[in-house]
C-alpha cells in the first residue's frame, strides 16, 4: 500500500471514529437530559392508554428470569373503594400466570380493570411523587388472586398472590421508564411463600 493510500485510509478511519464518538456522546447527552415526568400529566395528555414495553429482570421464588411485559397507566378506574381513591391506576403485565404459568409471569396492578374484568375493584394504594408512581397491594384483597405471579413453568406451578411489598415506576421525558418491584406472595395448599423481586426498564410504545 502506497503512502498516499495509507494516508487516505487513516483519514477515512478517523472520520468514521469521530462520527461514532459524536453519536455516542449525543445519545448519552440526550439520556442525561431526560427528566422525570409526572404520570398524572402523562395520563391527562394521552389520547390512548399510555403503554410502555418493558424488560423485567429478577428472581421469583429464587429462580432467575428475564422476560418482557408492559406497564400501563390509566385515569382513576373506580371511586368506590375501601382503601382510598387512586389518583391514577398503574398495571404491570407479563404473561398470564393463572392460565400459562411461567417463571416470572406476573399481573400486578392497582385495579382489576387492568386485566379486562368488568368489575373495577381497587386492589391497593397508589402514590404519586414527582415522576414516580408506586403501588402497594391491599392485603385484604390479595386472596382474590386478581394480582398474582408464578415462579415456575407447567400446569402444576403454584400461583402466588402478593401479601406485602410494592412496585414503583419512574417515567422520563424521553419516553423511557425505570422501576422496581419487590414483594412476598402466598399461595396456600402446600405451596407456601414465594418472593418476587425485579428491575424494570423500557420505552413508551403508545
Automatic annotation (TrEMBL):
> Where in the sequence is the signal peptide annotated?
1-30
**Keyword Signal tagged:** yes
Question: Which controlled-vocabulary keywords does the entry list?
Answer: Signal
Listed name of the protein: Tat pathway signal sequence domain protein
- Annotated organism of origin: Planotetraspora silvatica
Amino acid at each position: 500500500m502506497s503512502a498516499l493510500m495509507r494516508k487516505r485510509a487513516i483519514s477515512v478511519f478517523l472520520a468514521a471514529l469521530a462520527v461514532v464518538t459524536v453519536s455516542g456522546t449525543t445519545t448519552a447527552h440526550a439520556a442525561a437530559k431526560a427528566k422525570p415526568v409526572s404520570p398524572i400529566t402523562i395520563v391527562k395528555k394521552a389520547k390512548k392508554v399510555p403503554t410502555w414495553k418493558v424488560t423485567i429482570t429478577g428472581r421469583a421464588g429464587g429462580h432467575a428470569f428475564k422476560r418482557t411485559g408492559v406497564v400501563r397507566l390509566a385515569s382513576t378506574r373506580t371511586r368506590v373503594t375501601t382503601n382510598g381513591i387512586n389518583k391514577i391506576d398503574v398495571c404491570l403485565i407479563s404473561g398470564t400466570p393463572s392460565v400459562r404459568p411461567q417463571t416470572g409471569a406476573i399481573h400486578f396492578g392497582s385495579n382489576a380493570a387492568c386485566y379486562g374484568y368488568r368489575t373495577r375493584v381497587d386492589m391497593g394504594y397508589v402514590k404519586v411523587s414527582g415522576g414516580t408512581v408506586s403501588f402497594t397491594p391491599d392485603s385484604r384483597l390479595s386472596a382474590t388472586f386478581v394480582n398474582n405471579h408464578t415462579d415456575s413453568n407447567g400446569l402444576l406451578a403454584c400461583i402466588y398472590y402478593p401479601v406485602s411489598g410494592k412496585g414503583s415506576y419512574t417515567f422520563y421525558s424521553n419516553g423511557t421508564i425505570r422501576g422496581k418491584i419487590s414483594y412476598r406472595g402466598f399461595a396456600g395448599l402446600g405451596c407456601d411463600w414465594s418472593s418476587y423481586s425485579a428491575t424494570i426498564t423500557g420505552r413508551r410504545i403508545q
